[in-house]
Amino acid sequence: MRLSTILSEVARNLATGTTRAVGLALALGVAAGALAALDASTIVGMEHDAARYRSAAADVRTVSAPGLVDPQACDALGGSTSVQDAGALVPTTPVVPSATPASPLQSFAVTPSLAGVLAVRSPLPEGVWMSDQLAERLGLARGATLETDDRPLVLAGTFAWPDDGRDGRLGFAVLRPTVTNARFEECWAAAWPTTPAVEDLLRGVVDVQPQSTEAITVGQVNRSLGAAYDAHATYVARPTRYTVAACAVLGLVLGYASVRRRRLEHAGALHAGQSRSAQLATSSLETVVWAAVGTAVSVVGLRVVVARVGAMDPTAVFDVVVRGPVLGALCAVVGATVAACLVREQHLFRYFKDR
């Protein structure tokens, strides 16, 4: 049978509704799209969980060793493969505001690189940092001056430090950026993804002295959300990871059923002289058409879903979940081909009786 004849028959079957292409396309598109949308929703939820973990400073690991932390070694951790930002700090003499001498503020000397860990917003070259709530309580804005019993302090920058389980000391403390070779008390490192190797790196910034009796303590700025968050393991173990396989099974079933329900027609065509290859080509092309339309329905729906569920990286999420509908379409063609291969001319009368 010539290609033009095959294409003509395919077009005729589609136009007359013999293939029930519209129903099959909608079934595949809606079902596969719903499965993929469920997976997308789960992945986006995991994205938000990870973002919440980081925004709460739960990804910031600390090492405490009074008088033993090398500030230069601590700063050097920032920008490595495991650590994005790092900085050191040490308590200093409290700051006594002139307006409230009875309420001194805790003070820390910090390395300038701690600004990255705390996400200090556009700090000025000179001055001190404090949390948003402390600046609001003192009635200060960036660039304003805090009068103290020692000397005026310029507010160089502020950072968010809500009461969400994180180390509360910095919520009402004045941070003084300092460049010095003197030993500090703590080193903080923002590390994502969280790995045990970060703790080993933090221990490496401690200048251990043989005669020292100070304990070295590795901790976490915010433990309320768990000691660790393995984003990769959570993604791999997500319950909706089987939606791709479900789409494949769905495609196989629909493709197989679309041909099997017409087995009497196909057996009759073979009996009338149609070649097996022509029949396979016809069935496959018919399936390709409705499967492609169904996939297009899924893709359009997924674009809308991914855009509306607040994905942080919509392209990456879409690229992951679209595999289900695409695989479903491919499996539909496979299922139809298998069903067509199983049609036997000698079973024509049995098909007639079972119709």
TrEMBL record:
Keywords: Membrane, Transmembrane, Transmembrane helix. It comes from the Bacteria. The chain crosses the membrane at residues 242-259, 280-306, 326-343. This is FtsX-like permease family protein. It comes from Cellulosimicrobium cellulans.
